[in-house]
Write a structure and sequence with these properties.
alpha/beta; single chain; four-stranded antiparallel beta sheet; elongated; six-stranded mixed beta sheet
Length: 584
Amino acid sequence: MGRMRKDKMEVFKKTVHTFSWAMSVMRAFRVRFNAYILLVIIKSIYELYMMTCIKGIVDMALADNVGELIVMCRTVLVLYLGAIVMSLVADRFSAYNYNGMYNKLEMATYRKIMDASWFDLTEYHSGDLMTRLSSDVGSIARNTNSLIPALVSNAILIFGAGIYLLYLDYSMILVALAVALVILLASKLFIRHVYDSQKRIRVIQSRIASFHKETFNNMQAVKAFGLEEYFYTKMDDLEKQRVEADLTSNKYSLASWAITFLAGLFGGLVCIAGMFYRVHTGNISFGALSVMAFLGVQIGNGIKTLLHMIPQIMAYIASAERVQRLLELDDEEHEGLPQGYEEILRSAEENGVSVIIKDMCFHYKNGGDVFENVSMKARPGEIIALVGPSGEGKTTMLRILLGIVSANEGKIYAETGNQTINLGKNTRAMVSYVPQGNSLMAGTIRENMLMINPGAQEEDIRFALETACIYDHISQLPNGLDYVLGENASGFSEGQNQRLSIARALLKDAPIMLMDEATSALDVSTEQRVLRNIMRRDPRKTVILTTHRPTVLSMCDRVYLIKDKTIQLQSDEDTAKLMLQCRE
């Protein structure tokens, strides 16, 4: 019994905490929400009053008082029309509140995903983030807006009807206490199981969404390897887990409802027998009997509704915990723009920028050291190559220069003229980036280009596309720049995707350009032509690239080998050996 009481109080506290947290996030809707609650209270009291009018109608009908009966029926009809109007107003109010709350929480969660530390976000699968952003946010907004008003409405109905029943016949209090005790016991027995099941359902739904995303993103490989049956079997297993969790929640909900229903049925039979006896002895009228029967039915429906809300409450708590955890992630560190930043940018336009790393150490929070006291330098007009075995830290180095992750020790800064500035999140305007893999968005080519530089003119876009050796292909497409790319730029080859990504980065016109395996899908001739175009059209640009291809190294001013937590500058002889090893 002590365990059950503890579970009951824990769930009650979680419910209160969840609602308080949700309203703190959506505090702008407090006035509207409180107005809605007030409207629900007035509507519930109004409907209770209408129920009591049944007594007068029945008594007048039995007394054959036709004139007063007609007047009373007209009054009840007007009351019901008023109830319909109040319901329509309340539902419309609810729709406005729900959409406002959903939008507010969705945008707050989306903003957090955009602003949160990249490393913290790697804990979540993108499918899981999508589930939290859509399904969980929707559950929170919907239940915050409807759950409390529904609880208030049903509580008023149950207690109001119960008080009126006792007013008509106080002997019903013993039956009411017995039924209430059974209901309390039923909720204690099953509420923890329902909560655990709903929490598991949310986790499984995220796994399913993640699996869907993995499947659709790799559909070509799935078909190429003949893995359709494997993926179908795995999806079937996930669905079976979801069904099992949902049926478990349903089982305990139904068990709680069944016990309550039987208790209510027994109490109702006792009440009916008692009411007929009271009518027979002349203590109450047939009108009072009708009202009591009707109120008894309403109380039963109210209790049934409350019990059916238990899974909804548990899902509400589970969703809130998931979104709350996301909103508590730390944002990227923001130190503010350094003094003289605008002057540095102007100097960079004239003189270019040197990228300097001195005695830098870095390790991920969940892993070992990646770099130990490493140093390197890239000057304006140079192409610097980072090479080395996979997994040694080439991409991580670019993330450090971008400020996506922060070095634990050492200095990472840019130098232009006599001025220096630490590189990081706040200096990303100085850096353009071509990531590894496809980063193009569904939409037109023009939209993909302008997202980097909204103020770019037509000639600027053409210049960038020509530099990346992709303009001739795009000019032959239907609608040219307004050609619509599908998901993952379907219809474009991998090499075309890479060249378009390079053009997009060039449109930013930043003094530093980072390229992560950005020419791996290009033939040797196109690769060399693209790199020559970049340096010829902006001789001051500082380019740092990662590569596994030997053909790139011949065009680089310096080559750094990343291996065993170190960065080693390669001599011409070392570079020649690397090129030979790559060819082999």
